[in-house]
């Protein structure tokens, strides 16, 4: 009985994350920060927009700013453009983070996470709060606030 209570207590402390792949790396965003996942289609480019902004699109009546997550994090351009995006709402605006592939929802207990490796690229080191092992690969846990701090500075440049 004690064992099941311990297991239930751990599940109560678990956090949910949406996982995605970008340039061969798996990362996770807190599910509480994700507005939705959607297809990137009918993107309108915006003249004179800063690097890192793909364009804008209409998602059920809302304007979404599509972000080139690869460029923001310093990865080379993909052979084919991203077709999926993770929608994040920040300060009343909806942004779509372009990703190469969507993964599963990951349930993670803080005690099972490891610190971010010191050998991560500077851009990743600034946004990653830890690493979670999954059945298939390592997943970098990303702090949405830190990611958008980088987006803000990129767009302001």
Automatic annotation (TrEMBL):
Top-rank lineage group of the source organism: Bacteria
GO process terms (BP): chemotaxis; signal transduction
One family name in Pfam for this protein: CheW
Residue span(s) of domain CheW-like: 14-153
Family annotation (SMART domains): CheW
InterPro entries: CheW (IPR039315), CheW-like_dom_sf (IPR036061), CheW-lke_dom (IPR002545)
A single Gene Ontology CC term: cytosol
PANTHER family in alphabetical order: CHEMOTAXIS PROTEIN CHEW, CHEMOTAXIS SENSOR HISTIDINE KINASE-RELATED
Protein name according to UniProt: Chemotaxis protein CheW
């Amino acid at each position: 009985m004690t064992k099941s209570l311990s297991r239930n207590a751990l599940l109560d402390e678990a956090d949910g994350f949406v996982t995605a792949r970008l340039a061969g790396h798996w990362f996770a965003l807190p599910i509480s920060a994700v507005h939705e996942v959607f297809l990137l289609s009918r993107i309108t480019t915006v003249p004179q927009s800063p690097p890192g902004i793909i364009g804008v699109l209409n998602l059920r009546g809302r304007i979404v700013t599509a972000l080139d997550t690869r460029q923001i994090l310093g990865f080379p351009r993909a052979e084919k453009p991203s077709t999926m995006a993770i929608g994040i709402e920040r300060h009343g605006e909806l942004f779509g983070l372009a990703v190469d592939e969507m993964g599963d929802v990951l349930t993670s207990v803080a005690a099972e996470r490891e610190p971010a490796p010191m050998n991560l690229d500077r851009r990743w080191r600034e946004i990653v709060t830890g690493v979670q092992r999954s059945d298939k690969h390592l997943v970098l846990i990303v702090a949405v606030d830190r990611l958008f701090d980088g987006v803000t500075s990129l767009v302001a440049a």
